[in-house]
Design a protein that fits this description.
Elements (H helix, E strand, L loop, with lengths): L6 H9 L4 E4 L5 E3 L7 H19 L2 H8 L3 H9 L3 H14 L4
Antiparallel strand pairs: 1-2
Helix pairs in contact: 1-2
């Protein structure tokens, strides 16, 4: 499942939840202090969206975890003396999603 980072995620990361009342899906923010979103804030929010999306897309650990064998598969491999196949599968996943 592909996750898309949005402006609300960026606002939360930059300013925290306590800085705004609400925001819509377009990233229009209603600030608690009542100010309108400035050009500088808009630039910072847009840059943070890109940074968060890049971080998410490059998260090798999350991607590996999604494809690693389950605990149950690991137990069966150990009990069935099939540890070599399990290690090979894990090595393939590590190759597919290397540490940056």
């Amino acid at each position: 499942m592909e996750i898309r980072i949005n402006k609300i995620d960026a606002v939360r990361a930059l300013y925290g939840r306590s800085s705004y009342h609400q925001a819509d899906g377009n990233g229009n923010v209603k600030w608690k202090d009542g100010h309108e979103t400035t050009d500088e804030e808009t630039t910072a929010i847009n840059a943070k969206v890109v940074a968060l999306q890049t971080e998410y897309d490059n998260d090798y650990a999350r991607k590996r975890e999604a494809e690693y064998p389950s605990i149950q598969e690991c137990v069966h491999a150990i009990l069935d003396d099939d540890l070599d196949a399990l290690q090979a599968k894990r090595a393939d996943i590590k190759t597919k999603y290397p540490k940056s």
